Amino acid sequence: MSSATVSTVRDFADLFGGADEPLGAVVDGAWAATGGGEIVVEDPATRLPLASVAEATDEDVDRAVASAHRAYRDVWRDLGGVRRAEILLAVADGIRRHADGLARLETYDTGKPLRQARSDVETAARYFAFYAGHADKIYGETIPGEGSYWTYTLREPYGVVAHVTPWNSPLSQMCRGVAPCLAAGNTVVVKPSEVTPLSSLAAARLFVEAGLPAGVCNVVAGYGATTGAALIAHPLVQHIGFTGSVATGRAILHGAAERIVGCNLELGGKSPTIVLPDADLEAAVTAGAIAVVRNAGQSCFATTRLIVHRSIAEEYGQRVAAAIGRLSVGPGIEDLDLGPVASEQQLRKVREAVAAGVAEGARLAVGGSRIEGLDGYFLSPAVLVDVRNDMRVAREEIFGPVQTVIPYDDVDEAVAIANDSSYGLAAGVFTRDVATAHRLARRLEAGQIQINRYPMGGVETPFGGYKQSGLGREKGLAALEHYTQLKTVIVAD
């Protein structure tokens, strides 16, 4: 079942506009040579090279940010919401025109099944269409005074916003942040992960082809510690969006504090789902299995702590293990249930976490081993049962196809287990009692609660975390609040 060939940038000439390797940055709507070292991007399903990307130096980052600042000052800020909306709709159409090529590129770059990549591309287009509908509706308030004055408020853009995006869903994550920023009148510079930079670079060119003015969205490639650090430290960057690890988010927040600029941070999760005795067990089993399917479990949003009433925990664990054991695994381009994890480093991390869980007393019900006959970073999806919440597999974000089942005795204990985490991105509840579901939703310490199905939601549903899962909100109208700043104007009668 091993993939015999690997696609390269040359196979996606329509996306890259004939760019030569190593690929550089996209600045002012065109390919720009960059002066850093060469980064080889590989297909995780075959471990063969896809492309070479040249790292952006401090000087390259400065050029990209200066370009975005000029575009903000001279073009985008004062263009008006109606015209911005028209352009964002054209970008959405452009993404859809190139959907097949973008999906295949994303599959080769990330390893995810082709159907998931196609869904991600449509989601990317949907972000631009959704925020286009609000670009001319970013309103303030009128506030009555005490008789001698009146007040009104304005929501205004920041200027240049930096977006540092992750490797698991690079295109949709990029568009999730870029679309509301542009709708609000900001311009952006994106630094995608060095592991999966290709779709972000291609998209930046496609945006310009669709009518986005040059410089409004620039992309620079490179490592976080160098290119990313130069971007977030740049004095013309007025706001930062980041999705990734807590450690890197903490470093970004320190840097932002030095310059007194705001941040949107999404820093991962260890999302619990409470399964009550009266739950629709089949629906709860499906939720547990889907958690390891999406991006091979490499999703901060995935529910990876299944907190199940002891009276049904054994049956539930068996059913989840059976469902996950039936999943097919292979190269993403073959469009099976799961692809590989993103890298050798990630594969090692996931295998070590499974081994640690077993060593601490959990029981491995299925999976957890390398798959014979496949050359890439493939792992059979695993289920650990009889897990305690103090185990490493319950505390740390594994970011791989590993599911855990934790038994509980009463609902107060279930809530305590769910909230006993440094994370608070999302949580789930399965019960047929609607009143109980709403009570638990209020008690759970997470930014988004899913009831009786997981996952749910779309571009319109605000997303972000409590505790160390981050700051701010992406998606929905809430994102427009975080990518604008409030001005209050007080007028005498």
Automatic annotation (TrEMBL):
<dbReference type="InterPro" id="IPR016162">
    <property type="entry name" value="Ald_DH_N"/>
</dbReference>
<comment type="similarity">
    <text>Belongs to the aldehyde dehydrogenase family.</text>
</comment>
<dbReference type="InterPro" id="IPR016163">
    <property type="entry name" value="Ald_DH_C"/>
</dbReference>
<dbReference type="GO" id="GO:0016620">
    <property type="term" value="F:oxidoreductase activity, acting on the aldehyde or oxo group of donors, NAD or NADP as acceptor"/>
</dbReference>
<dbReference type="InterPro" id="IPR029510">
    <property type="entry name" value="Ald_DH_CS_GLU"/>
</dbReference>
<dbReference type="Pfam" id="PF00171">
    <property type="entry name" value="Aldedh"/>
</dbReference>
<keyword id="KW-0560">Oxidoreductase</keyword>
<dbReference type="InterPro" id="IPR016161">
    <property type="entry name" value="Ald_DH/histidinol_DH"/>
</dbReference>
<feature type="active site">
    <location>
        <position position="266"/>
    </location>
</feature>
<dbReference type="InterPro" id="IPR015590">
    <property type="entry name" value="Aldehyde_DH_dom"/>
</dbReference>
<protein>
    <submittedName>
        <fullName>Aldehyde dehydrogenase family protein</fullName>
    </submittedName>
</protein>
<feature type="domain" description="Aldehyde dehydrogenase">
    <location>
        <begin position="31"/>
        <end position="489"/>
    </location>
</feature>
